[in-house]
Design brief:
This protein has about 120 residues and is α+β, with helices and mostly antiparallel strands. About 35% of the residues lie in helices and about 20% in strands. It is built from 4 helices and 5 strands; from the N terminus they run E-E-H-H-E-H-H-E-E. The chain is globular, with a radius of gyration of 16 Å.
C-alpha cells in the first residue's frame, strides 16, 4: 500500500443535472436513472490538500473545466449548456471530499493525457 500525493473528490450528479440530461434532444436514457449516474460518479484527483477548505479552493479554481467536462460527456452543443457558474456547479453536483488517497494496486500508476473536446 502506498499513499499517493493527491487528494480526491467524487462529483455526484444531482436532480438538476438529471433534468437537464432528460431535456437534451436525441439522447436515449432508457437504461439510465439518476441513481445509476450517482453510483458511477466521476472521481477527480487534485494536489494534496491539508483540509476541506484547501480542497474547495482547488475545486473552485477548476470548476469551469470540470463542469465543461461533465457536460461535454453528454452534449457537445454548448448552446444547450447552462451558465457555467460556481453556484450552478454546486446546485448540479454534490462534492464528496477525501484528502488521502491510498493505492492498493501492485502495478505502477499510469497516466494518459486528457485531451478535451474542442467546441466552436
Amino acid at each position: 500500500m502506498y499513499e499517493v500525493n493527491r487528494s480526491v473528490f467524487l462529483l455526484i450528479p444531482l436532480q438538476p443535472f438529471w433534468v437537464w440530461l432528460q431535456d437534451l434532444p436525441n439522447i436515449n436514457l432508457d437504461e439510465l436513472s439518476l441513481s445509476i449516474l450517482q453510483q458511477a460518479a466521476n472521481a477527480y484527483l487534485i494536489p494534496t490538500c491539508a483540509d476541506n477548505e484547501e480542497m474547495w479552493i482547488e475545486i473552485e479554481q477548476r470548476y469551469q473545466r470540470i463542469f465543461t467536462a461533465e457536460l461535454a460527456d453528454w452534449c457537445e452543443d454548448e448552446n444547450l449548456w447552462p451558465p457555467l457558474t460556481l453556484d450552478k456547479f454546486k446546485e448540479w453536483f454534490q462534492v464528496k471530499l477525501s484528502m488521502i488517497v491510498t493505492d492498493l494496486a501492485q502495478e505502477e500508476l499510469a497516466r494518459e493525457e486528457f485531451i478535451p473536446i474542442e467546441f466552436n
